[in-house]
Amino acid sequence: MAIPISNEQFVGVNPSQDLTERASKLINSKRQIYTYEELMSGVTGATTLEIGSQGQFAGIGKLVTTMNIGGIEYDSYNLKCIASLTPEATSHVVAIGSIEVGAGNIFFTSNRSNVEAVDFNGFGGYTNNPLNFGAMVDDSTDIARPQLGLFYISQENIPTFPIEFNAMYIVAADSLNFECDVYVDMDFIVQKNTNVEFTIA
Amino acid sequence: MEDTLIIVTDEKETLLRPIDATFKVEYKYEGEATAEVVLEGDVKRGTVIKDEFPAPDASKDLEYSEIVIDVKDKPNNLAYASKTSRFAGRVPPKGTPVPLPFKGNIPKNKEEKQLAMAEKRVSLLERLQEIYPPK
Lengths: 201, 135
Hints:
The structure holds 2 protein chains of 2 kinds. Chain A is mainly beta. Helix content of chain A is 7%, strand content 52%. Chain A has one domain (49-200). Chain A has 2 helices and 11 strands, in the order ααβββββββββββ. In chain A, strands 1, 2, 3, 4, 5, 6, 9, 10 and 11 form a 9-stranded antiparallel sheet that branches. In chain A, strands 7-8 form a two-stranded antiparallel ribbon. The longest helix of chain A is centred in the first third of the chain and has 9 residues, at 36-44. The two termini of chain A are 38 Å apart. In chain B, the strands form 2 sheets. A 4-stranded antiparallel sheet of chain B has the order 3-2-5-6, with no helix packed on it. Chain B is elongated, with a radius of gyration of 20 Å. At the A-B interface, β3, β9 and β10 of A face α1 of B.
């Protein structure tokens, strides 16, 4: 698909102009008009990830979709993080960063996080599994095996900070040493129009 | 039928789901020296779910009712202060939010946030290593 030269070209009209669409009584100022950039960011969520103190890359991005739950409106955001759980160990905790909101709780509505391990000396190639108990991990043998301990993303409030401060962690543990790469990709909702700020850990 | 009688929030009306606290509902009648505790228990996940607030004694005049939220003073509890909400001449309305004042530390900069997250990470890792000892 050809890349449009500008947002206006893609939308077809200048969003500041009030035009009435055929068979509609709405004018543009009454509609929500998305630019090409907004539409694309809505598809992919966070795309700019900064590097943190444990070598992790993480960031958040606002999604186009909004939700109305029982009359209460929410904005949607996406959290992404890429981290290597190395060197191999029985327990790994990576602090991703914090999500701070102006007011209200955050609710994670979707989790598409992936775990990648090497299986060069097993069936070959790389394994990819949803992040959870049982995901394939590897070790110095380069043979992937299921992880049988804990594997989850933790959302936690730091006790001395306000409730609106949500610290995010990758938590993984097993009785045997293991390592893997983790790709966190989760959507969350917050009260509509509240401020949302991410601080890399 | 059970319903949410009390909602424990901060002053921005954010539900304090992890808070460890107890609650008391007291009725004070005209001419009596002390208030009477009519309901008490633990706050669970930031709420109190019960059938109803007890009906006041119809033979007496209710001076006020109070909801007392007592936040437990223990490590790792959220940094919010205990609070009492008073309702003159009536029982508390169902679903009453009790906004607790914050008594903790508002992080001033990025470094303070990062330090707190790093400390928490180390403490979580140490707890995991007790269950899954390093090899």
